[in-house]
From TrEMBL:
Protein name stated in the entry: RHG39 protein
Domain MyTH4: 39-191
PANTHER family reported in the protein's UniProt record: FI04035P, RHO GTPASE-ACTIVATING PROTEIN 39
InterPro entries the record matches: MyTH4_dom, MyTH4_dom_sf, Rho_GTPase_activation_prot, RhoGAP_dom
GO BP terms in the entry: signal transduction
UniProt cross-references to PROSITE patterns, sorted A to Z: MYTH4, RHOGAP
Annotated Rho-GAP domain residues: 238-310
GO cellular component, one term: cytoplasm
Molecular function as annotated in GO: GTPase activator activity
């Protein structure tokens, strides 16, 4: 049910109305929209999107550095998962920062021909979409950007460009007769269209469900799960057919979803059939989130007390 976005939702159109005017060089020349939407190894000195919010102004520049760290374009002081945790927590906690974060990710995944960096950028977008959507105003533009990267033709273009840059680099090496540190690496990783398809579906779900519910901030286990979910889909939000497919290896003879029967057993074990409001009264949302994380790893945590949670 994919719908092709109209040309009116091109991210350049949105940028021309909402971007700060950035300048560069001694004479403070204006940076074009195209350049502002292309990968950069430099940091930014002000947000990409116009805002009067002082907190967003401050955090926007910091989050750009964190994105560069996660993508491997800047040296990080901590490991990758903790960088992603800091980014996701900032976006989840500060609604005004979300569109800025997504536009920065769009920028760093445009004309980025260092494949490892590019793949990490898309991976980070998938992680962020697990915790919060963009605002409704920016939704269609982000949707259009992701949609255009779902075509495998784009994978071929990226691969071809990387190949050309490698050839150019090797020619320079032979002229210099020494081995400079290579900037572009060959790759045999996951196609960008695979990440884009996952992000597209995640964006649709995030638009319906909103940001992660509850009072507890994202944690490292949730970040790890969101990162792996690109290749290990969640049991929640998937079709019945997909869920049966997921459990085929573990439970080839089961005709009902393991998640449904296992949670039913937990409800009964906690006297759920005698509990007023069962299936009507919601369980504590933070406990539910923690349980979902465990279930997606095929575990049921011990120590559950409230039958409303399962």
């Amino acid at each position: 049910n994919l719908r092709k976005p109209s040309s009116e939702t091109d991210i350049e159109n949105w940028a021309s109305k909402h971007f700060n005017k950035h300048t560069q060089g001694l004479f403070r020349r204006k940076v074009s929209i195209a350049n502002m939407l292309a990968w950069s190894s430099e940091s930014i000195k002000k947000p990409m999107i116009m805002t009067n919010d002082r907190n967003v102004k401050k955090e926007a520049c910091e989050i750009f550095k964190l994105i560069q760290m996660y993508m491997g374009d800047r040296r990080a002081k901590t490991d990758q998962l903790n960088v992603a945790l800091e980014i996701a927590t900032k976006g989840w906690s500060m609604q005004g920062l979300r569109d800025e974060l997504y536009i920065q990710l769009c920028r760093q995944t445009t004309e980025n021909f260092r494949y490892e960096s590019l793949a990490r950028g898309w991976e980070l977008m998938a992680i962020c979409l697990a915790f919060f959507p963009p605002t409704p105003k920016f939704h269609s533009y982000l949707e259009g950007y992701i949609y255009r990267h779902m075509d495998p033709v784009n994978d071929t273009k990226v691969t071809q460009h990387i190949k050309e840059l490698l050839e150019r680099s090797s020619k320079k090496k032979s002229k210099l007769r020494k081995k400079p540190k290579p900037y572009i690496e060959e790759h045999d990783g996951v196609a960008i269209s695979t990440y884009a398809k996952y992000c597209y579906n995640k964006l649709q779900k995030a638009a319906l469900t909103g940001a992660k519910k509850g009072l507890k901030k994202p944690n490292i286990e949730e970040i790890r799960h969101a990162k792996n979910a690109v290749f290990n889909p969640s049991m929640f939000g998937s079709s019945l057919q997909d869920i049966i497919g997921m459990q085929k290896e573990r439970y080839p003879d089961r005709q009902l979803p393991w998640v449904q029967t296992r949670l039913s057993e937990e409800v009964l074990a906690l006297n759920g059939d005698q509990t007023e409001g069962i299936f009507r009264v919601p369980g504590d949302i933070d406990e539910v989130n923690a349980l979902k994380l465990q279930v997606d790893q095929w575990k049921i945590p011990t120590g559950l007390e409230d039958p409303h949670v399962p």
